[in-house]
TrEMBL record:
Keywords: ATP-binding, Leucine-rich repeat, Nucleotide-binding, Repeat. CDD domains: Pyrin_NALPs (cd08320). Residues 147-278 form the NACHT domain. Residues 1-94 form the Pyrin domain. This is NACHT, LRR and PYD domains-containing protein 4. GO terms for biological process: regulation of inflammatory response. The keyword Signal does not apply. GO terms for cellular component: cytoplasm. One of its GO terms (molecular function) is ATP binding. It comes from the Eukaryota. InterPro entries: DAPIN, DEATH-like_dom_sf, Leu-rich_rpt, LRR_dom_sf, NACHT_NTPase, NLRP_HD2, NLRP_innate_immun_reg, NOD1/2_WH. Belongs to the NLRP family.
Amino acid sequence: MASSFFSEFGLMWYLGELRKDEFRKFKELLKETPVQLGLQQMPWADVKKGTREDLANLLAKHYGEEQAWDMTFFIFQKINRMDLCEKAKKEITGYTKIYRAHIKEKFTKMWFRDSVTRIYDHFDKKLTPKEYEYLECLFAPRETGRRTVVLRGLQGVGKTTILTKLMLSWAEGTVYQKFSYIFYFSCREVKQMTETSLAALICRGWSNSVSPVAEITSDPERLLFIIDGFEELGYDLNEPDTDLCSDCMEQRPIRVVLSSLLRKKMLPESSLLVAAVPKYPQSIEDRLMCPEVKIFTGLGETEKKLYFCCLFHQDRTRGIKAFSLLRKNEHLFSMCKIPTLCWAVGTCLKREMEKGQDPAVVCRRITSLYSSFVLNLFTPKGASRLDRQSQGRLMGLCSLAAEGMWTDTFVFSREDLRRNGLVDSDIPALLDTKALHRHWDTEDSYSFIHLCIQEFCAALFYFVKSHTDHPNPAVESMETLVSTFLSKTKIHWVFLGCFLFGLLSEKEQQKLEAFFGSHLRRQEVQQTLLQHLQSISENEHLQRQVDFVAFCHCLFEMENETFAGWAVNLSHGMHLCIHDKLDLAPVAYCLKHCYALKKLSVSTQNVLVQEGADPSMSTNHLTYWYHICSVLTTNENLRELRVTHSNFQESTFITLSSQLRHPWCHLQKLSINAVSFPGDGWLLFEVLTHSPDLKYLNLSGTSLSRDDVMRLCQALNNPACNIEDLLLANCGLSPDDCEGFRDVLQENTKLKVLNLSCNYLDTGMSLLCEALRHPACYLYALVLTCCYINEHCWGCLPEVLLLNKTLLHLDISTNILTYENLNLLCEALTDPGCSLKSLCLINCFITPEGCRDLAFVLIRNPNLRNLQISHNDIGDDGVRLLSKGLVHSTCHLQILGLGTCNLTSACCKDLASVLINCSTLRKLTLSGNALGHEGVLVLCQALRHPWCGLQWLGLRKAEFDEETQKLLIEEEQRNFSLEIIDE
């Protein structure tokens, strides 16, 4: 029986439909059936122990597909499974056959219509062995049938190409035969729809009705849906479950249909393959059901080399030279993983060599390569500059590119081209030069061969025209372009800002003037850029929006050290979130010019631990990292460094540590948060004894071993250590570690602040209390939030408050504080010998009754200035009791926190009395309470009282209705000394 599209995978699925007893009978019948059919028997030992997958492979191997299926059908009849025979025959002769023929025709046309796929002659529409293996791994056989795979890859890296090959190979019966149907949805195409049904999407283009859907969906576990270019939709999949639908026939908005499919509300047994760029919202994966994320990396080094050999097949020496140059430029080499860009880079280098130019000049920066590539497209061979017609086409192309970047348009109609000055007669020339290619989605649409080319042309637009001259008002000014790029608000803008800066370099301007003459707007662009960067530096809000790594890439492309030095020193604080090894060189280039920087924050993620196979590349990365760390010694103004969310290997950690303990490093504050470092942690703690200026150390979020804690405590006890503030929140500390801190508190008279929050201290608290009672302990503030303080230790704390005369701030929030223990604490607080000024008891399970004791403290303790009891269910009764202490003449409280305490408008009269009668109260937090309009009205009346001295009120305006919000705004405008903060 001919069934070329039924491989062993399809056979395995049918064998999987057999019950255990039927499968055992199937094996037994395999002894006699081959003889009856005149075939050789398979080894019984292999058959007997074989799984369903093994048996499918054995049948295909010994008899070939056709005879394997004939034998299978013969046995199915003998075990009374005619239903499986009928099902298979339907798939071979019914809708499946029609659909496969449609897919083969459709995707073959797409392949040959898409000019990009024809750029590289050695590429074929058949899957390579490597691609075949990669695809098989995506949906390797498992126990569960339904799967959701997210295929991540850069724009243009070849996701659509491999999916096109997949569809063709499935139609031809060579891959994914476990799926009866595979449906491919291009998001660029489907997002144009309004309302539809999944049935209509399934039958679109190959059936005049939706009648096949019932048969198709009868076995949903054998369906695969491919969603290609998911980022094009702009969806977040956040629709409520009640808005989703489960009926394939139901007409709904396209967004709802796709969300229902992706979130498994519709056809939950089916499999999904979602292709997207890496920067699409990661929150989307949280909405999918157990997604498996796979990375599509594009061309590897061997494939890049192979392509260069094909491109330079007539002169292998030049090809080897070009590839060597490419290999030395990490940015360009990385770009070449994208097939189209590999072609563009190779073509550009080849053209430069043919002109007798040094290709190394083109490989300096990505801007230099793209400018040469684009200008070469429009320059006839042998000519030194563009003719008038070519200039006009290039300027029209730049205008089109700018419009596309601002309107998020990447596929253009003829009308779009005409609006930007490109007439119909220009199109053949643009297609021939491969500046544009005909897009496969529709017959009469065009796009740039890659988004990077569009970005370059859009940047070039600002050098040949002003945005005010553009026919589309959506095209914004250059200043807006820079701000948009640096804030990363458009995720598809990858190089646009870099190209704008890069085109200002001296070498690029010389190149452009040679092609365009002297009609460039260089001086105007540069002056506008200078003024805009200056205005950003003077606006704190704008400065906070700047992605400084993107800014470093821009300055790196510009190749102007004087300008880079001026630009980076506009800011006194910088946060660098390094996501890729390619960020290291630009960041190192910029930091070496820093002299005004005072605060630096660096995050390297996993960049510094994933070493490449090439040792020279690893050496380069280590060199860049050294130059980044050198800012600690070359910038004498740098006072604060924060390293966060980073993983280090030994060499990179040694580099950082050596710069930190260098005599020229004058840091005063050092934070190492959520950082993983190798076993040489002692290098970090050695910094403490070699940095006399260092007063503040924050290791919160960084896991510390027992040995780490011992080394840290040894360093803290060294006379050369000057640390005053030590923050160790969430460091994985244990009760045993408190022994080291006890010694530190008793011996180190310099330490003033200790934060041990979010560590399981439990019985270790006894050791801390012992140290706090010691006369040599000079601690000023102790923070023990969420430290699992046990019952015994609550009894130790009151004694600490009585004996320790330096301790002024105590935070024991988020610990279980019983009424009895609160009572003991309050007794100590009312003692005349207690010096505490600030107490935080947030989320400590305080009851209204507990407020009676706290009120007594307010009356008897004139030292207490700050009391925080937010997130305790004290209610209106608690406020009533507390207010009796607050209005007392001996109460000197200045700050009170009552956020989220289950308060209502009923307590506002008591609070109003406090505002009027507590003359020292300056800050009050009430956010998270249902005070209502009436309650706020009472508070506002009190705020207007001449005796009220409140300066700061924490109250979220958005929690109230419009009328109440207006009331609060008016009160703030009336009272210039009052701030109402959304806290």
